[in-house]
Amino acid sequence: MAGARDLRERAHQALGLARAHARETERAAAFADESVLLAEELDDPILLADALGARLTTHSGPEDLDVRLSTSLRMLGLVRHSPDPGVRLEAHLWRLTTALEQLDLGAVRRQLAALELLADETDEPSHRFHACSRRAMFALTEGDTVGAARLAAEAADAGVDEVPGADAALRTLQAELARQRGERTALVQHASTCEKRGRSGDLASLLAQAAVLWLEGGEPERARQLVDQIAPALGDLPRDADWLLVTCKVCEAAAGSGRAGTAARCARLLAPYAGRGVLDSRAVAFAGVVDDYLALATRDREQAATARAAYRRIGADWWARRGPLGRTHEPVTGPAGVRVLHLHPAEAERPTGLWCVGREGATRMVPSMQGLEYLRQLVDRPGCEVPEAAEESEQVRSAVRRAMRTALARLELHDGEVAYELRTTIRTGPAYRYEPDAFRPVEWRLGTDQHAARSVGGP
Fold it and tell me: Which of 159, 235, 281, 434 is a Cys-bridge partner for 125, taking CB atoms 3.0 to 4.6 Å apart?
């Protein structure tokens, strides 16, 4: 007993030292690794999760991706042994981060779905904030500004007082929304606020982001001033969680404001990390792929093609359509032909407890749940609300909304295409409503009888 108590005290002491020396990367990492070893001896999943989190935080540099990946996977494994909501939240957030760095679309979708399920199960405002803010981030990654705006509003409604850094996360989402919408007035306002906060705290990450916002807002001279301020310190920036983001942002602002030498210098620093996704700490904002910034600096068409291929692999539509210097966009082109998607019970006459979902020719079976039936009703009646406000009590409406959210989260785990189609066309609020996209026609199969097929969304 005394031995276990001593181990626990030493583990907590190592954790405290890792946090106390956070600015001294090597010392902090050594203490974090020690806390992991001690927590393993104790066989305490919650303490081990804290220790693994400290290891992830202290191995945040661009060269530490392998450590972060293995550690995030190990933390995710703890979820199977610990039902603790805090452990689950940290595990899914860290794995989402490493998945985005790797450009692993399947893993990204699984972690977003897991965060949504956690929020539904616990009904905790902080969990809802994390689920909505990360889904808003990924909606922006996919170029879905309508969905992102709705999710950012839901994140704000969840209560920012519950989450440290929530205000900053929401400002980041709003700035990226303005950027993708081309709202110059809003961009200038965000740039000014970001620069002011960066100067007051001497934060290179905020100054670099402000430079890009000034550039996008039509103020290249203001962007150039910030680039000139940051450039002399590029070689001395700490190799922490913000290094890749800062270097990429400076590269973009330099390339767009006439500082070709600084852009070329950034490209040389970034070259070892080609193929990597760029994001801020804890995956609040996706900032493209390293190859894109290399293409901005070098004007290398092959590098630009590599970047676009990476964007298309993860469905990053807005990023894939950016022009050679990130200022113009290619027109959106829809897929050839109408897609056929299935969403119906496997056997209507003899219920099997399974549903058939997916693209024609590549369907799969998923466990039945009430929310799937509500989703099918929405798709079957475009423009109609489910539940109908006039007919149901608020308690019933709340239960229906929760069932649909859970079903959507489960669908993410089984068929990302169907889940994405529903998320981008279902409008939420007091009731849910399906509004098909005329530019992405879909023919839904909502029953086993082929004659029950219903074509929606086409012109």
Answer: 159
